[in-house]
Amino acid sequence: MNNVDLAVQFFLQIAVILLTCRALSFVAGKIGQPPVVAEMVAGILLGPSFFGLFWPELQQLVFPWDKTQQLRDTQSYLFPAAQIGLALYMFIIGTEFRLDIVRERLRTSLAVSAAGVIVPFVMGAGLGWFFFHYTDLFPARTSQLEGMLFLGASMCITAFPVLARIIQFKRLTGTPIGTVAIGAGAIDDAAAWCILAVVLAISEGNGALAYRNIFGGIVYTALVLGVVRPLLQRFQRWLLHVDGSLADGGLIFCLAIMSLGAWFTDLIGLHAVFGAFVMGTAMPRGAVTTGLMNKIQPLSVALLLPLFFTYSGLNTRMSLLDSAFLWGMCGLVMFVAIFGKCFACWAAARASGMPNREALGIGILMNARGLMELMIINIGLQRGIISEGLFAALVIMAVVTTLMTSPIFDRLIVSPSLDRLPAGHARTT
Fold first, then answer.
1. Residues 375/316, Cβ–Cβ less than 8 Å
2. Which of 101, 148, 164, 411 has its CA 20 to 30 A from that of 386?
């Protein structure tokens, strides 16, 4: 397929994705679900699980598969556009991230993130041991250590982009519960990607990959917060017009360094979203962050971000869960995922002194797995670490834990109007 054909197909894909997401968002809004849930479901419906099942030729025309039927056509423009949308959105989320609240609630943030990694990882590793010895859910080439580490990483992931969108949708941005949840989610996802790097290093016999991933992420965060952030704060006037609004040159510069951050974290094995998010936290508060939000957020949320969620869903085949045994294993995966994440984070928040209602809200939010989970398990499937049956079970877990987050949070934590927050959640913005 030449570049002209790719461009023509890309515009058709955008139209189909946006119209489908809009229709499903309308339905999702009626039942109290945020738009991100509609975008997740849209991706699955547009993929082989529904669109490709009933209209395979038409689905192949709009969203072609490669010859092996394993990956969406990598020559499409959809993937890079989706990555740009995700990076831009997480950059904006970073500009709203309240470091002052994190410092005020550092003990809670660290406790929740630690519990959200350690408990799910241990339970997931134990589940991996069980699957390795008593099922054929791992391929023959996968070692016991690989299986245990991979399933542990899969269980401790939090859907960082999904969590960010849910927090924004619930208007919790800048509140203690929102900031603690997104801060802990960022740490948990970084830890999960580091564990994944260790798994891949074992699989490939390359220990340097894990060291580059972990220490590169630490160095990058330290440089951005310790060097880049003070420099931008000191010279922010160069980014602004005389009247104090963000200049076009300032916008271009901020987008350039955001792209460099995303490039670097992607290069060292962490996902690009972390580079973009951390760089967003370094932006000077006030006129710069307000200008960035006004210029970037509408396009990224309305156009580019749905492409990311839909693209990830396009690579999911629900038909792989085709036996009672696999459904039973799926239920076991679900139990371990929910208990290990939700209850562990709730207990950690309570132990650190948060009121029970707020702690429960954090546990519920942290339980959402979303498409970060799908990204990790897709890597596992591509590398031959997990079987297609286990992949399908993990997909179900990712979708269900995300779908259940919003309604349970609404029922237990906030009033139906969404205009009233629990006691102690007055906005700090």
1. no
2. 164
402 residue type, one letter: T
- Work out the end-to-end distance of the chain between its first and last CA atoms, rounded to an integer number of angstroms: 50
The amino acid at 389: G
Local structure of residue 284 (DSSP, 8 states): P
Predicted pLDDT of residue 75: 47
**Which residue from 221, 212, 249 is spatially nearest to 94, judged by alpha carbons?**
221
Which residue's entry shows tokens 């699980």?
A: 49
- Mean pLDDT for each 10-residue chunk of the chain (429 residues)? 69 91 87 77 83 85 61 63 85 78 73 92 95 90 90 86 73 77 79 77 70 84 94 92 91 95 86 86 91 89 81 71 84 93 92 86 87 76 84 85 85 53 40
Query: In the prediction, which pLDDT does 127 show?
Result: 95
Chain-centroid distance, C-alpha 253: 26
Q: How many CB atoms lie within 10 A of CB 395?
A: 26
pLDDT at 422: 44
Looking from the CA of 308 toward its CB, the CA atoms found within 13 Å total 25
- Which are the contacts of 106, defined by CB distance < 8 A and separation ≥ 6? none
Q: Are 110 and 333 in contact (CB under 8 A)?
A: no
Phi, psi of 65 (to 5 degrees): -95, 160
DSSP 8-state secondary structure symbol assigned to residue 319: G
**pLDDT score, position 354:** 83
Residue 75, token pair as written in the block = 């020559």
Q: What is the DSSP letter of 385?
A: S
- Structural tokens at position 76: 């499409």
Structure tokens belonging to residue 56:
């395979």
Between the alpha carbon of residue 129 and those of residues 31, 38, 135, 337, the distances in Å are: 39, 35, 10, 15
* Domains present along the chain, CATH in parentheses: 3-59 (no CATH), 80-412 (1.20.1530.20)
Q: Check residue 347 and give its pLDDT.
A: 93
Cα gap 242→418, rounded to integer Å: 39
d(CA 10, CA 2) in angstroms, rounded, equals 12
State the Cα–Cα distance between residues 121 and 196, nearest whole angstrom.
12
